[in-house]
């Protein structure tokens, strides 16, 4: 059943904006945007059997965005779960702050109005990190506070509380952090048989040596199912590179080695991807973006002056969509001694098919339409012979390609700084039309569908990754 939950999301956004600054400063993060919350719900819950609603818990529910997203996702994919969740107590939330929990109750009440259903959510005000419970739910969905407890931040936590967390959570033997403690807790809370966790964490958790102790602490509890890199570049919400970490109950890798590289070894990414396919022609990627040098003030304006032309930058690009340019490039800027800039001819920009963000942990791409000037924080892709632009766009924005990029360049200096380069993109293999086989047309179809919704459909994103994986591996 398709239900419009806009009133519930509008209430959530109103509550976010109305939060007192003092309370917001204690959160250690922001609230999960709708599109990302829906992706967490899909990746975590879609594997459960349809006939019985799983018990789902958010142990740090904030204002309830993940719980609302779970309900919205279920309305489309598992409508039989909605009533047991909202009236039978099988959708649960914990929150330490009474003000936030009251907000969650309001958001879910609005969801009930959208559904024409009187809701009785199971919401409890408690400090989840004091919990000794085990195996009480089928699934955990969470966006825990991203807060390292080192340096000045450690002073926010009373010594007795810090000592208790260190006793209770093995991840504290490495870099103490609230988000690792919450994830370890979540691993204990899900049932051993079929339990699943969907948690938003900094992407570096997957491979940074600083998180090795955390990965070892999770090994007796869970194994990695998948890690979905996400990029949030809206004005609010999570600002770091974020991953949807999907974990399953059971023993994992106790070595503390990077999760992604171990997963890639199991899937034989190098044998099936690096060796089986070849990169695009070198001419496919170029650095042509406007480099204003030390003349940005003379060249670029936020006003549509006479003769000025639109110019985009990386903030205008999201996966599968490009925003209207908000800045303008002056056609004739006054020349000044000592000032310099680099601007390619306008005709060159018209030939660009796809633009890719330079700053980030994974490639983020969009069609360059309508054509315009763009700054040098975007990389130009001119397409490739015999390959549809929609196909390339789907590959570039897939989880599989993102993981391939991360694993290929995790040791380089620029990769460590979060910079994507033309040279890197020129070395990554892309399946030809023939090598991709039946997956080729499926990738094109899904890419076109995702362009219609600006990449905000978690079901289509998951299908795209499956199709791209098949194009690379043949299975």
Describe this structure in words.
By secondary structure, the protein is an alpha/beta fold. The chain folds into 2 domains: 6-257, Vaccinia Virus protein VP39 (Rossmann fold); 282-332 and 344-473, Adenine-n6-DNA-methyltransferase Taqi, Chain A, domain 2 (Adenine-n6-DNA-methyltransferase TaqI, Chain A, domain 2, Alpha-Beta Complex), CATH 3.90.220. Residues 233-239 and 261-268 have low confidence and may be disordered. Helices cover 38% and strands 14% of the residues. Strand 11 (317-318) and strand 12 form a beta hairpin. It is built from 20 helices and 17 strands. The radius of gyration is 23 Å and the shape is globular. Strands 3-2-1-4-5-7-6 form a 7-stranded mixed sheet, with helices on both faces.
Question: What's the short story on this structure?
Answer:
The chain has 475 residues and is an alpha/beta fold. The chain has helices at residues 6-18, 21-24, 34-45, 65-77, 82-87, 98-115, 159-168, 178-189, 212-218, 259-266, 269-274, 296-299, 346-350, 389-396, 399-408, 413-416, 422-427, 433-436, 439-452, 458-473; strands at 56-58, 91-95, 122-125, 139-142, 196-202, 222-230, 242-249, 285-286, 300-301, 309-312, 317-318, 321-322, 327-329, 354-357, 365-367, 373-374, 378-381. A seven-stranded mixed beta sheet has the order 3-2-1-4-5-7-6, sandwiched between helices. It has a four-stranded antiparallel beta sheet with strand order 8-17-14-15.
